[in-house]
Amino acid sequence: MSTDCSSLPNNLQIETLSPDDFAEIIEVWEASVRATHHFLSEKEIAFYKPLVLKYALPSMQVLGIRIGEKLAGYMAVSAYKVEMLFIAPEFMGKGLGKQLLNFALNELHINLIDVNEENPSALGFYQHMGYQIISRDELDGNGRPHPILHLKYQSVEI
Predict the structure, then answer these.
(1) What is residue 99's three-state secondary structure?
(2) Looking at the predicted structure, is the pLDDT value of residue 95 above 90?
(3) Is the pLDDT of residue 3 over 90?
(4) Cα–Cα dist 104/79, whole Å
(5) C-alpha angle with apex 129: 124 to 81, nearest 5 degrees?
(6) Distances in Å between the alpha carbon of 105 and those of 9, 37, 142, 147?
(7) What residues have CB less than 8 Å from 67, skipping those under 6 apart?
(8) How far apart are CA 94 and CA 96, in angstroms?
(9) Is there a contact between 71 and 24 (Cβ–Cβ < 8 Å)?
């Protein structure tokens, strides 16, 4: 089934997701990771997937955007940081990530996010949105050799 993304509304509804949505969330996570995280092996994807499902998602507030009945993208936030932001591949480049980040900034007052250094398209997106690198870790949170960049939104002074 093909989804026409060219006419998406500018202000789609952001909804709170629940554990009942976790199966759909992990599908979006995996499809997005496969489309953007080319540095991860199949073995690494298999390593991270249950961790996201069992530990990460239950400990965070998860907010998503649906297009029709389909979950098109989501972000998971802690009290102070966007911990995850994933968009289904067929909806990438349509403004959903921007809408989620703007919600995090304007409604939740969260201005921090991390990104894999090996994911230059995500880093470019965050920088375009006004985030700047404030620090770097050589290893990811699981001790694996995938450097993490810590970013903070920098308001523009005029």
Answers:
(1) helix
(2) yes
(3) no
(4) 11
(5) 95
(6) 20, 25, 27, 25
(7) 3, 5, 8, 12, 91
(8) 6
(9) yes
What does pTM read for this prediction?
0.90
Instruction: Give the model's pLDDT for residue 1.
Output: 34
**pLDDT at 7 exceeding the cut of 80:** no
What is the identity of the amino acid at 93? G
* Beta bridge partner(s), residue 14: 65
Neighbouring residues of 131: CB distance < 8 A, sequence distance ≥ 6: 113, 151, 152, 153, 154
Angle at 61 between CA 55 and CA 65, to 5 degrees: 115
Separation CA 111–CA 117 (nearest Å): 18
